[in-house]
Amino acid sequence: MSKSGSILIKNGYVLTLNPERKIIRDGAVYVEGANIADVDKSADLSKYSADRVIDAGGGIVMPGLIDTHTHLAQALIRGCADDVSLVDWLKRYVWVLQGNFTELDGKVSAELCMAEMIKSGTTSFIECMIHTRYGFDGIARAVDRIGMRAALSKIIMNSTGYADSPDIMYPGMVEDEDACLRETKEMLQKWHGKADGRLQVWYGLRSLGAVTDDLFKKVVHLADEHDTHMTMHLGEVVDDVRYVRDKGYDNLTAFAEDMGLLGSNMVFAHGIHFEDSEIDLLAKTQSNISHCPASNMKLASGFAKIPLMLQKGVPVSLGCDGGPSNNTYDMVSEMRLAALIHKAYFEDPLVVPAEKAIEMATIGGARAMGIEDHVGSLEIGKLADLIIINIDHTGLTPHPNPVSNLVYAGSGHYVDTVMCNGNLLMLDRELLTLDERKVRKQANKQIEALLDRADITIEPKWDTL
Predict the structure, then answer these.
(1) Domains and their CATH numbers in the chain
(2) I need a surface site. Which of 173, 219, 226, 354 has the fewest CB within 10 A?
(3) How much is the pLDDT for 440?
């Protein structure tokens, strides 16, 4: 990480995301150590004598993006499960490949994923399910070294079903309850709050069918005991609804409430199949929803009721999901999709405006991680997690409204500079904490060996000479 003491970023179009959502034209941000020391007009902050001065050149300066549903292990299997039905996607490809991972695969995939996230403006993320075979320690060390902010969730499971389909889990993905809980406790003791406070350790509950009721309740108690959070897939598939109804519950939230899963320390990924009548309870309990529009569309899972959730006060953030289901970790693109798909589905151009998409990707993500008092906006005293987006590009010209241009015309490729915890992770499109070429070379080597171990062949459907 490039540690520069004090840094002055000037001549920017500053999106503060503060409570008033103020924008500062020709603005500046002054950083001392890990914290934001001042935010104002460039002329007003010229009084500071910084160790390093970065000229934003009129580009957008904004909080770092926060991905609240990420599969680090799936970066390595990008493009390995495209255009197939969901059950085939899991049973024939994703589970088989991940079930043949080595710890080196897990480390390389995590590095590849983080390299892509940084290059597209993500500074913080929630990794939803780390299997023992991926090597939690190696992944945590990589996060520490690379400099991102992360919640790393250890898989918790004790059954082999998926929703209402029993015993379909690939053997290599099965884990023992006692071992899961033991490893999570060890990782909490070793990594929670470490890496200059950038690391959290969470409980990553597997989806319905892979966790018994007793284990759900046990984890709720443990998360409270260790003052940490939980995350799980819920309502991604309609099969989840059938599963809880077969158990005698009216709907998903009735089941979740009985298990003790509702609350601000829970992030539900997807949340597509909640009924309208369930939204009020999600709002009342401030249960977080990680909205994953690209994944939901690619796997034909459906459309989450995001406009209604936002209207009712449910905390909603954004997630890219994984390499086989998105297939990118570009949160700028995810903002665009989040702002577009609901307009078409509800036939209403006013739902999920550009500003709301940006909120979900920043302060909404910080709220989901339980760190909104520290990151998610550019305010004095908050940690310096921020990015600069270069808008001097043909595809972003003209830009009378840089906010809407960012969402509707932007992509992660326009991100120029990334800072997390006051440390520069990327400057002028160059990664500073990773050797990008080496990461790509290693990933290509690992996927060849992985495909061979899993006995899977991936190739285009067209004849290839």
Answers:
(1) 6-63+377-431 (2.30.40.10), 65-369 (3.20.20.140)
(2) 226
(3) 98
What is the per-residue pLDDT across 403-434, written as a single tens digit (0 to 9) for each?
999 999 999 999 999 999 999 999 999 999 99
Locus of tokens 């899993």: 454
Confidence (pLDDT) at 3 = 59
pLDDT at 1: 58
Q: What is the CA radius of gyration of the chain?
A: 21
Question: Residue 327 pLDDT > 80, yes or no?
Answer: yes
Q: Is the pLDDT of residue 258 over 90?
A: yes
Q: Say what the pTM is.
A: 0.98
